[in-house]
Amino acid sequence: MKVLVGGCFDLLHYGHVRFLEEAKKLGNTLIVALESDENVRKMKGDGRPIHTQQQRKEMLEALSCVDEVIALPPMNTHQDYYDLVTRVAPNIIAITEGDPLEANKKEQAAKAAARLVVIPKISTPSTSQLAKLLGLD
Question: pTM for the whole thing?
Answer without folding.
Answer: 0.90
